[in-house]
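Example 3.2
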Amino acid sequence: MKTLLSITFALLLAAGPLAAQDNTLAADGISAEEQALLDEEARLDAQEAANETAAMNDPTAPNPAPAHPELRPVLEDFGGEAGLTALMETFMAGLIADPRTGPFFANSDQVRVKRQLVEQFCVILGGDCTYTGRDMKSSHRDMQIGRGDFNALVEVLQVAMNEHDVPFAAQNKLLAKLAPMHREIVNK
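Structure, written as tokens:
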């Protein structure tokens, strides 16, 4: 379907002025019909990504981002979604630099991992975000993560939170919600 839309869009562009005669051009030079095709292609891409993520999830795994609306004030202690985004930059840099965790992240899609961590932490802390990642069991299945590896990640996260002046009590509230996930992440 995506290919068909791409071909149709290419044909519309190739047809030039004749195809655009019946459509009023938008301010950016795209006709309403072309914009509708672009919108439909984007919708299909998003649906395809959601379906792929759902298919890769383990139906027996716990929710990786359970919402805790009562923690909304804690989210503010992190600086909201923007603060979480800044935190993830520091966190990922620390994970890559640490010899204990670096091998797990060096060849990963770091942009995606950071985005999904922001989403996950935001949802857990009662924010208005949506987690788009997989469950923890499916995400870490083939990674051979030991308890020491998990603990090293938590240490790097704590250092990053300290660097961002996240209050100790707020750190502990988040870590208390994340800690049980070790059962799905540690697999060695």
